[in-house]
Model the fold of this input.
Amino acid sequence: MVNYIGVADIQQLVRSIGAAAFIEQLAGEIETDYRRWAQFEKSARVASHSSVGVIELMPASDGQLYAFKYVNGHPKNTAEGLLTVTAFGVLADVATGYPLLLSELTVTTALRTAAMSALAAKWMARPDSRVMALIGNGAQSEFQALAFHRMLGIRELRLYDVDPLASAKLEQNLRSLPELAGLRLVRAANVAEAVRGADIVTTVTADKRNAVILTQDMIEPGMHLNAVGGDCPGKTELAREILLRPDARVIVEYEPQSRIEGEIQQLPADFAVTEFADVVASGQTARRSAAEVTIFDSVGFALEDFSALRFLHQLLSSGLHGTRQIDLVPRLDDPKDLFGGTLGSAAAGPARLRRVA
Done:
């Protein structure tokens, strides 16, 4: 029997811990895994692109556990009442190859993306950062707001989206959360107004194109840019000139993947970047001065999904939360007789789905 987490299960699990606390704990697990970067088998995700979106597989293994995520990105889905991003994943035991956990990852991906954003900012942003501009107020925006408020002490959030209804949705959702009562929300008329004077700028737009959300003239010394939305070939958010600033430093998750999908796809292959694992390993902040412009070129890497699945499995294994299990793998009296144990005359009984308290 394989542990199973569906949408209702992740809702119950996160609510029992608290969304902000869950994000912070998940960030800790991600950091732990980045500290043992050398133990991981790493590869860029396998992507199947179409004119309307992308479907990707993201594998990672530390030699003990293996994980993969299936995820799509289809920006036009919302016009049909569908989510832009959906995902599920598997955590497996390397020693046997048996799956340990099958889980939804649509909600969990949003949680881990926010966790990684805030974790990177803890290493990169100025410690006194209190004001963040949030450009793009869609499905990921609430998670980013929760993460930065909890983990970096953000006290003012500037909101902007080309769709005013998205900003209204975000503001309504954030104002409904008691833990964000001290967070000041400011609606901006445009990107430049949102960014002006901000300590941190998070861009999380959805259009699958080379967009210029931030231009060179908007960037001020000491800013930290959390560029989340550019995450596939032909999809970027920052003007090329920002990356080339002499006072800028670019941090990526996994360089071979970021060269293909990140903001740095706009630049030559020899453009210097630093991997986040090297920052963590050094034990030193990635910021070399208070005036430096730091850029987290975030595309999402499989190690973070590995961490999320490992964390979920750990929570279930602790016995603090009820689990559901599915018979994803046959249980046979004779492991050499697959036919007789499943389809033969001696086999009986319907497929099982049971809840274990």
